[in-house]
Amino acid sequence: MTLRQDHPCQPQPSAATLTKSNGHEAGFQNPVVRQPGRPIPAIRLMLVDDHHMVAESLGRLLATAPDLDVVAVANSGEEAIRDATALEPDVVLMDIQLPDRSGFDVASEILRRSNRKIKILFLSGSVVDLHIRLALKMRSGGVVGKNCSVSFLMEAVRKVASGQQAFDPEVESRLESGPDGAKQLGPTSALAELSFRKLEILGHLARGLSVKEIAELLHLSEKAVDSHKYRIMKELDVHDRVELALLAVREGLLQP
Fold first, then answer.
1. Which spans does this entry mark as compositional bias, Polar residues (predicted)?
2. Which of the four CATH numbers 3.30.930.10, 1.10.10.10, 3.40.50.720, 3.40.50.620 does domain 191-251 have?
């Protein structure tokens, strides 16, 4: 993941490190950097990304803003749920593609467990229509691409913390306002109609995990997973796991 310092959202070659606007290299030892004499930040921010160095570097950059306090960096869905439940940040910046669970399922679990209104802002390397539909479906804070600048991301976090939604220009160009003024994205898709739990199980099935492995990963019974599997295939009108995997890739639920 790379984030630009100059343009709001513009692709650039991958980099091993992120740099601050003054050109100094951002270190990886501690994702939270407090500057002497800085005021207590108003927005408590948590980052979730499975790329350790990128997550820590981004955390250090965001922590340079006087009104942002990066309270945690999680590298998996389970870590994110645990830390968000314990710390209850104001905003969670959530990577959509995580190694153990989808960002949407993790976000749904965080919101279910939280005693306060945590805002979720999704971050994706490749924002497909399904990501936007799911983000809108759960009334999240929005979606931004990983090619956005750090300054744009800071403003997006502030906007989401204030109760608004934030979308990068490329995502914004795909949206339109509905009759009630809410953002929407054209005709829906079959996958977007599934529950977040079914989408999570679908993703694992499409990756080739067995019912037993999925049950252990999600702390469910094998019977429950098998029941979800049957209903998913029936609702999507697919007949085997190969069709399921192809559909998941085509819709953007899985990266090819």
1. 12-21
2. 1.10.10.10
